[in-house]
Design a protein that fits this description.
Layout: H1 2-17, E1 20-26, H2 41-52, E2 56-62, H3 67-72, E3 78-82, E4 98-107, E5 125-128, H4 131-134, H5 137-144, E6 149-152, H6 155-163, E7 169-173, H7 174-182, E8 192-195, E9 200-206, H8 210-226, H9 228-235, H10 242-254
Parallel strand pairs: 1-2, 1-3, 5-6, 5-7
Antiparallel strand pairs: 3-9, 4-7, 4-8, 4-9
Length: 255
């Protein structure tokens, strides 16, 4: 009887401690976020981490620019894909859980020579939402101040505009671009040129609750160490850029 009573008490304790957590996610960014089936690398990773902690993920999809605001308003438990550039307190950010690499992409048949940001001055450019905040002062001064510069939440439309010739260049994550381009048979085989103008960028989860943030970090570390993180990257066809991030940080510290 004592064993049964103890088991029941532990079960009720677990149920009481488990929660459905509201997680705000930027609009579709396949293969990182795919709202249609609540999938994608970032959602699946966060869901798996929270499940291990006894919680359930409840996604809330918003245009990317609203993510930080909802977090500041205490309207959600977790906000994904944030870093210091999004003007949120570093104290509430988790350890980096995903690494992006933003690039400039042009159609090969346009033969646009790009040696730096200045090379794109005067060109028509479409970028992901909040790019001018994320990509630095030089980017903002050189490109984002131009009249023919536009930021857009729907990244599938960005790819369409580039591939159909409506703009000269698109600024976005290389994996997102490759995934979306491959989905459209009208131009999936058209050649493009990738210009690596930007460093890799680490992104964190905004988690105001310090206990939950510590648990998230510890579980993320475990996922990386035991191979589950890499398996999820492979499932979505993503390159693991953590090594590149480490090399970049060593270069900065050594310079």
């Amino acid at each position: 009887m004592r064993i049964a009573a103890l088991f029941t008490a532990l079960l009720y304790s677990f149920i009481a401690s488990s929660e459905q957590l509201d997680v705000v996610v930027g609009w579709d960014k396949p293969p990182y976020v795919m709202s249609a089936d609540h999938s994608g690398f970032e959602l699946e990773l966060t869901r798996a981490i929270l499940k291990e902690l006894g919680h359930e993920l409840s996604p809330i999809y918003v245009p990317f620019g609203r993510t930080a605001r909802l977090l500041k308003d205490n309207a959600v438990d977790i906000a994904l894909t944030l870093n210091k550039a999004h003007k949120v307190s570093a104290d509430i950010l988790s350890d980096p859980y995903v690494v992006y690499q933003n690039v400039a992409v042009t159609r090969e048949d346009r033969n646009i020579k790009v040696n730096g940001l200045a090379s794109l001055r005067g060109k028509s450019i479409i970028a992901f939402q909040t790019a001018k905040n994320v990509l630095g002062k030089e980017y903002g001064n050189t490109l984002a101040s131009q009249p023919n510069y536009l930021e857009m939440a729907r990244q599938d439309r960005q790819v369409n505009m580039l591939m159909l010739g409506s703009v000269d260049a698109v600024i976005m994550d290389r994996n997102i671009f490759s995934y979306l381009k491959a989905q459209n048979d009208a131009y999936s085989n058209d050649a493009v040129t990738i210009h690596e103008l930007f460093p890799v960028s680490a992104y964190c989860a905004g988690i105001p609750n310090p206990e939950l943030r510590a648990q998230f970090n510890a579980t993320l570390k475990k996922f990386i160490e035991d191979g589950r993180y890499q398996a999820l990257l492979t499932r979505f066809g993503l390159e693991n850029l953590f090594d590149k991030l480490v090399e970049q940080q060593l270069h900065i510290n050594g310079s």
